[in-house]
Prior knowledge:
Low-confidence stretches: 22-26
Order of helices and strands: HHEEHHHEEHHH
Largest sheet: 2 strands, antiparallel
Strand order of the largest sheet: 1-2
Amino acid sequence: HSPPLQDRRIRSSVNPQDTRATCTMASSEVKLFDKWTFEDVTLRDISLQDYLAVKQKFRYFTYLPHTAGRYNVKRFRKSQCPIVERLTNSLMMHGRNNGKKIMAVRIVKHAFEIIHLLTEKNPLQVLVDAIINAGPREDATRIGSAGTVRRQAVDVSPLRRVNQAIYFLTTGARSSSFRSMKTIAECLADELINAANESANSYAIKKKDEIERVAKMNR
């Protein structure tokens, strides 16, 4: 049967180009958790721009920090992993939490809501600033073979700075929420805000300062 005349009129009046344009407009703005925009995030540290996957490529724009990508297959592939997903993965530690990515995604989502309520800023910007501030720029390594061992100060590569910053941030949040009234989401939000402000209350900033102080002594 042919559709009624009224239906045919409606179909003919809809311009397919218009619908295509609205679809592309809607799809072009991808927001994290359908709420936080990637567009206005700024990376103020030029050395970390290639290692903080925020908005440099279109594939870094994700609705959820859960892409199920195989980022550990090849060396340096993990620098292509969206930065929020790397934070999420780092939360899944200590045996009982291994593999619980949905739980980690929920924690990050709640932490971002708390960050926005406390600072009125885009939580993505707070996260990027926290990672830039929390990564140690200088470290001490062990030089020498059996017998005489001494420490030598070395520069830290950009990728290791990002790796260590994420590790310190999540470790600090985990330790402060353990046997505490505060939830892990609240502790993660506090840790990120303090690290973004370079506050001495941040576990990550304390660790970074300690590492850099030891390195300075061994120059």
